[in-house]
Design goal:
The protein is of the alpha/beta class and 312 residues long. The chain has one domain: Alpha/Beta hydrolase fold, catalytic domain (Rossmann fold, 3-Layer(aba) Sandwich), CATH 3.40.50.1820. 35% of the residues lie in helices and 14% in strands. It has 9 helices and 8 strands. An 8-stranded mixed beta sheet has the order 1-2-4-3-5-6-7-8, sandwiched between helices. Helix 4 packs across helix 5. The protein starts with 15 loop residues before the first helix and ends with a helix.
């Protein structure tokens, strides 16, 4: 079990530059069913940010996904990306900027998966949807000039947890394995939510109360139960040997810090190269809502450079 975080969580622990961006975030009522029902409609009204030199294709037929293709292709590699949202909100469109950036800078095709959300659709619905996108990418690889052996799987937050679980599942199957796993603040371990002493720490953006709501919605039971599948909570997977190289980035003051560091250490102990980047003063999700700040720009540049070394 990951070690609980201790110590007060106060605003002065947040990086000063991120503090400004954090103050602008709206208070999103994730627990409210009306908001979760309304959120997809709001996303449809949102204009997708364009990335110069990158085309966007929206695939509505199953498996649903968004496809970002650079005008100048520099590699036969690709990225299967999975969005976050605590397993209960979000869509592939929320990461248009990041996916477009990766496609442009590395010259690779990026495919961002759509998946069904909890609590209406519990495990393994989301993982099955992401797996279907993986299988579709393999089947269509030649049409996109993609080498099936050079596809990385990545994601942020709950998407990072799904990415880690998908990597484990794919590596248990016959066929091409992922070239790398690219995990940003991955939501890996339901047992963190069972640490009730974390509730009082008030982690910005995503606290343990929300964490418990996300996990219980996804699992259909209270987190921390003995029976939870390791493909639902990938930190529970006992044998990590043979998995592809991993990048794990996490903020130093966020809820997932301890479980992410522990997973990186377990990967290394199992013989899997794991690049761990801990960002001082960074709360959860700064990769998305902190875009444009120097700390986020540096972090993304380092992260994308790592990814390029494996698929670019």
């Amino acid at each position: 079990m990951s070690k609980p975080i201790t110590g007060p969580m106060t605003l002065d622990r947040v990086d000063p530059e991120l503090r400004v961006a954090l103050a602008k975030l709206p208070n999103v009522p994730i627990r409210a069913a009306w908001f979760r029902a309304l959120a997809p409609l709001l996303m449809k009204l949102r204009k997708a940010p364009a990335t110069a030199g990158v085309s966007l294709e929206v695939r509505k037929a199953a498996p649903g996904c968004r496809i970002y293709r650079p005008s100048t292709v520099r590699s036969t590699g690709a990225l299967l990306w999975i969005h976050g949202g605590g397993y209960v909100i979000g869509s592939a469109a929320v990461d248009d900027a990041l996916c477009g950036q990766v496609a442009a800078e590395l010259g690779i095709t990026v495919v961002s998966a759509e998946y069904r959300l909890a609590p209406r659709h519990r495990y393994p619905a989301a993982l099955n949807d992401c797996h279907a996108v993986w299988r579709w990418m393999l089947a269509e690889a030649s049409g996109f000039a993609i080498d099936p052996r050079r596809i990385a799987i990545g994601g942020m937050s709950a998407g990072g947890g799904l990415a880690a679980a998908l990597v484990q599942r794919v590596c248990d199957e016959d066929g091409p394995e992922p070239a790398a796993q690219w995990l940003m603040a991955p939501m890996l371990d339901d047992r963190t939510a069972a640490h009730r002493n974390l509730d009082a720490l008030a982690h910005p953006v995503w606290d343990n109360d929300l964490n418990r709501f996300g996990w219980s919605s996804y699992l259909g039971r209270e987190p921390g139960a003995v029976e939870v599948s390791s493909h639902a909570s990938p930190a529970r997977h006992e044998d990590l040997s043979g998995l592809p190289p991993a990048w794990i980035g996490v903020g130093a003051i966020e809820l997932f810090h301890d479980e992410d560091v522990a997973y990186a250490q377990r990967l290394e102990a199992a013989g899997v190269p794991a690049a761990l980047e801990v960002v001082p003063g960074a709360p959860h999700g700064f990769e998305a809502w902190g875009r444009g700040t120097e700390v986020t720009t540096r972090y993304l540049a380092k992260s994308i450079a790592w990814l390029g070394g494996h698929v670019g």
